Amino acid sequence: MSSFTGGDKSAKKEQLLKAEQHIRVTYGVEEASGEKQEAIEVMAVRTLENMTGYNTIHPWSESDLREFKLSVEIISGGTNTVLVDDWGIPSVMVRFPLLTNRELLQNGSDTVHPAFMIREQPQKALYVSKFQNILIGGRGYSLPLKDPAYGVTFDMASNACRTKGNGWHLFSFALRSALVLWTWKNGFLPRGNSDEGCNYFYRNEKGIPTTGGRVATGSGPVTWTHNKNWNGIYDLTGNVNEWNAGLRLVDGEIQIIPGGNCAIPECDMSENSSDWRAILPDGSLAKPGSRDSLKYDFRNGKIVITTRIENDTNESCNCSFGDIQIEKGLEIPEIIYSLILCPEIPQGKYDGWRWIKVKGECLPLCGGAHRALNHAGVFFVGLTYPRTMNYELAGFRSAYILNE
Question: How far apart are the first and last CA of the chain?
């Protein structure tokens, strides 16, 4: 980000002081002394001195990494940590523990939420990028006060995560669903940059401008985190849309990668992969194209979950998430609600719009971006673009599983 780089010694000092102030804002530190002040200073130095260039490889020294990790853990009270890829470059991550559908839905069962089921085994926790990722050498990294990556295709985003080494993968739609439902169940809908640097509904909420209407990662107010706390995950709403793994529409049919298996290195998410599964009304998974599989259709101005497509248009269609309907007489399995494919409570308190196209393969872009206006929100999902679309508003976020 140009405002934080370059210049002579006096300019550098000014940049460091500015970076320290922004880090205080990112982590909600009003006053700091002793160990915490030292941690802020270290984070400012590391943020400025390392990886300042877009798509530039700059490995960190072991001492830099130790200092940076310790500083993040001190400032966040141990709720955030730093994980390093096989290039020795760090990402700031947030640990998100296992949850059941009962903990996330109004009428959920004790079934483990799909995001935490990998190879049919429950995971105690998953790690999520605290910030929308930047690109360094074609890989994704979660770091504060950076201009997030944009204009990437789905496959670019997936490869940017998988190539980082074992355990790294593109943030899955299942995991996003768990996060979104957690915020909803706790009575909070995170906001973000939905109108060229500020929030469309709360215009006093702003981030640090970068370019093109985006803001620097983690530079918005605490209401732009998933838990309304400085230790939370930033920008699930707005700034750039995020490609998510493990969900797609094919000619209107809803297809998923089972559980959180898109985190597995050998999982094949290519267009013709046999790993994709359709969902049947009883909640079982079947081969794509199976009889009576669940689909999105558009009827009378609303998106409808159905078993048959009536709409023959190639146009994009949309409605607010809360307005998604279920075809009369159709029973919906719990997995549809746990993957935020339909509101559990019709017309409930939700945000964000749902966009679909019932022709071709379309992969999810989530959250809305900096010009989504009133359409942005954590429940926003756009299923209208193919994996090859290098949309200028498209970014991504990496995630990590320890036992890989």
Answer: 33
